[in-house]
Amino acid sequence: MKKLLIPLLFFFLISGLVQAAEWNAYSNLYATYMDFQNSKVKDNGWALTGYLAFKDNYHHSLEFGLSQTHVNYKNEGTLTQIKKKRVVLLQQSVSDIDQTDFNFVYTNINQILSNHIFKIGFHYINSDDELTDQGKIFYFQGSYYVPYLWNAGLEFAYSRYDNSPLKINVFQVRPHIGFYFNILEKRIYGETRFYYIHADKVIGSSIKNCYSLEQMVSTYIGRLDFMLSGWLGQQIFAVKNESFVVYNLADKYLGGLEFELGYKITDNLRASFDINQQWLEHVEYNDKASQSIFTISIGGSF
């Protein structure tokens, strides 16, 4: 709990400052259930996430996230052993994992360069996982956009897990390009993303360099909005959703499909349901597992 004192104090300090400046505010609450199939290691889990954002007339924004996650392990778990600069994971009975994540992102829109958006963020992990406890992720994104036509950008993430004896460093680069187009008189947005991830240590049976390609499309009909995305390739220690989601456990992901349905209850209130199916390997097990993630959320502006 002491590890969270500084993030919480920082959160309340910034909240007071932006409220005094009369910025617009938006909050969201997420409840998530995870179920693992064909896994020799994990059974299921849950997560609760609170999100709070403040915006200043689309010039600046401050975003905060605070998550609590619990993962239930089966009788056989993993024990980390370092051998010749390589992480070897041995079978052993281990307890479940509890983890708390804190995230902060600042966004600058058109204030540095016209038609440019810049984001800088920081993500902190407090986890029972000894390999990534006290992990720190530094995030940056720069993008250029033509309103309602297209956009392109480049994202960088540096993950530092220096609390473990191995001291793992992970570098991620993610370029993207997005377009708006019309099909059957419906406005659709599509975005293509390429991931390159490099870990400076070999984690179990994983590899140092991972590549993957992701495609996302979204649209809306009246008060309903839809999002569909899928990706293929390999990912380890991936940083996603502008650093709000970090896959810090030592698993190698091989692909995924995601669908989200949202409904605007009022002009200021929205609810959504999201299902995310992912395929992965637990290192040193080669178990070809999969995981289903179900998330419901509700949020609004005030």
Descriptive report:
The chain has 302 residues and is mostly beta strands. The protein has a single domain (2-301), classed as monomeric porin ompg (Porin), CATH 2.40.160.40. The chain is built from 1 helix and 19 strands. It has one helix at residues 5-20; strands at 24-37, 42-56, 60-73, 77-83, 86-92, 97-109, 116-127, 136-146, 150-161, 168-183, 186-199, 202-203, 209-221, 224-235, 239-240, 245-246, 251-266, 269-282, 289-301. The strands form 3 sheets. Strands 1-2-3-6-7-8-9-10-11-13-14-17-18-19 form a 14-stranded antiparallel barrel. A 3-stranded mixed beta sheet has the order 4-5-12, with no helix packed on it. The chain has a two-stranded antiparallel ribbon with strand order 15-16. The relative contact order is 0.15.
Descriptive keywords:
about 300 residues; mainly beta; Porin; 3-stranded mixed sheet; 1 helix; globular
* Cα-based radius of gyration, to the nearest Å: 20 Å
Number of helices: 1
Name the poorly predicted regions: 77-92
In percent terms, what proportion of residues is strand?
Answer: over 45%
CATH superfamily: monomeric porin ompg
Oligomer: single chain
Helix content: under 10%
CATH fold-level label? Porin
* Strand order, largest beta sheet: 1-2-3-6-7-8-9-10-11-13-14-17-18-19
Number of strands: 19
Separation of the first and last Cα atoms: 30 Å
The SS-based structural class is mainly beta
**Average pLDDT across residues?**
88
CATH class: Mainly Beta
Q: Please trace the helix and strand order, writing H or E for each element.
A: HEEEEEEEEEEEEEEEEEEE
**Total domains:** 1
What is the CATH architecture assignment? Beta Barrel
Major beta sheet, specifics? 14 strands, antiparallel, barrel
* CA-based shape: globular
